[in-house]
């Protein structure tokens, strides 16, 4: 097992980062199912489209860090691959942002 990057037992430690909240939430649920409390930070900036990309960070306690690292590797191997071409996302609601407007006529 890898030792945590610092030895202050009261400091939470960064386990990993994700580009979106959904992936971080799946890992956190997985860790919690294995008895490891985990939290996410940064979820408010993760979806911004700006020069500076925000990431959702998953943090765990110093004491749980070694086991959390092992579970992270297992999570990466077990995480299901979603084939989005097979997912029915339904139809866009009329008037929703990005939907075609009735007032627009093709030229």
What does this structure look like?
The chain is 25% helix and 14% strand. The mean pLDDT is 77. It has 107 residues and is an alpha+beta fold. It is built from two helices and three strands. The chain is elongated.
Question: Could you give the topology of this structure?
Answer:
Layout: E1 13-18, H1 21-33, E2 38-41, E3 56-60, H2 65-78
Antiparallel strand pairs: 1-3, 2-3
Give a quick set of tags describing it.
107 residues, alpha+beta, Alpha-Beta Plaits, three-stranded antiparallel β-sheet
Number of helices: 2
The largest sheet, given as strand count, sense and whether it forms a barrel, is: 3 strands, antiparallel
* Reported CATH architecture of the domain at 13-75: 2-Layer Sandwich
Overall 3D shape: elongated
Query: What share of residues are in beta strands?
Result: 5-15%
> What's the count of strands?
3
Question: Termini, distance in Å?
Answer: 65 Å
Give the overall pLDDT as a whole number: 77
Please tell me how large the radius of gyration is.
19 Å
Helix content bin: 25-40%
- Determine the CATH superfamily of the domain at 13-75: Hypothetical protein rpa1041
Low-confidence stretches: none
- Secondary structure class reads alpha+beta
Name of the CATH class of the domain at 13-75: Alpha Beta
The CATH topology of the domain at 13-75 is what? Alpha-Beta Plaits
